[in-house]
Hints:
The protein is an alpha+beta fold. It has 15 helices and 16 strands.
Amino acid sequence: MSHSIPKGLFDILPSDLKAEDKWREVHLWQYLENVLKKTAFDYAFEEIRTPIFESTDLFTRGVGDSSDIVTKEMYTFLDKSDRSLTLRPEGTASVMRAFIENQMYQAKKTHKLFYIGPMFRYERPQAGRYRQHHQFGAEAIGSSSPYQDVEIIDMLCEIYRRLGLSNLTVLINSVGNMETRDRYKNALHDYLQEHEKDLSKDSQVRFQKNILRILDSKDPKDKQILQEAPCILDFLESSAKDHFDLVCSLLSKEKIPYKIDHKLVRGLDYYNHTVFEVVCDELGAQNTVGAGGRYDGLIHDLGGPDIPSVGFATGMERILQTMIKQNVKLPKKNHPFLYLIGIDKTAFDTCFHLLTKLHRQQIPAQMDFSGKKLSICLQNADQSCAEYTVVLGETEIQTNSLKLKHMASRKEESVTLSDLTSFIQKLWFKQGETFRENA
Length: 439
Ligand code: HAM
């Protein structure tokens, strides 16, 4: 009986994959993770790791029980003791749960935390949308300053800059505080009431359940109706307006291009004040690469103290897909520096000894264990994409002399067997840095 991967999931593999699947090659993920971690450290963020499942009520309360995520997308199950658990659909609620439960607020006032890991949403799979996807997220806890909002947005953009992405647009809006949103929802309700029957089916449901989400509708008729709808920015109180104005002016000063999109409300209920998304039109329907915003009430709502926070998360699949679409220079695949072939028992043992020596010197090396004839071993060496290959037989051992072959140029160099490890070591120090781009 054969088994296949569940719908909406994918494997990340060490093989060379065809163009449209290239983003699933593991060395690209390793490279991306390194850039993400380095950027996080440069912005003084520390890593936090939380479990991949939590009590269901964390997300119902945290993300919001009228959000799409909670109403239709959660992987929820009962454990053997009938506890309702959910595979995390996002990272923010879990990080805040850990922050409160471990009383991290006792140690210091501000915390900057980042995480990398899989998230699970039961969505209709399509290009760029998966049932297990991976996020890098950053949460700045403890500051209500607009400068913190801008540092967070800049950090997200810096990640994309370091990866060589272009043609990205930062969309930004303010959703004010709870009272602003309530007043705005009433105004939107009054406006949409007379258009209700002309709205798309989805928007008619949202009209009853979560009216703000209608602003996200991609339906052309809904879009037309929304053209005349009231604008949330007109409902902001003066302090919220000042906050938003300062965020916008800091973005301009730091030369971070942005567009105000007053219909941007985000699908998770915890946001207040600044919300933002980074979109890339080359990605098609699922064009949001990263997104986030301020969520000053979430820690308190989850039972913790009143501590303001702002953060973002970016989808790693979408980053890699954008890099490939934009022909960004990709890192080379990891491959051995030296491939060793021994053609008889004595040479085999000598090669194995050399192999262990190279590994202990932290030089990537591989030996052919197939025991097949030389032509097959040479094919294996080619497939391994090794930088150099050495073939050792009786003659090489007797004469203490061998040929080191540079695989790309096919050029050979004579080296004595007794000097081979130190010779390779020298080459490795010369070439190692460019060779190990992803390390
Ligand atoms: P989100 O917008 O739901 O925000 O997800 C963040 C990013 O994850 C999206 O911009 C997208 O790139 C990626 N993503 C989401 N769902 C999928 C999917 N099904 N397949 C592939 N990629 C996906 C959050 O999760 C918030 N926790 C962000 C945040 C952090 N806000 C404040 N702090």
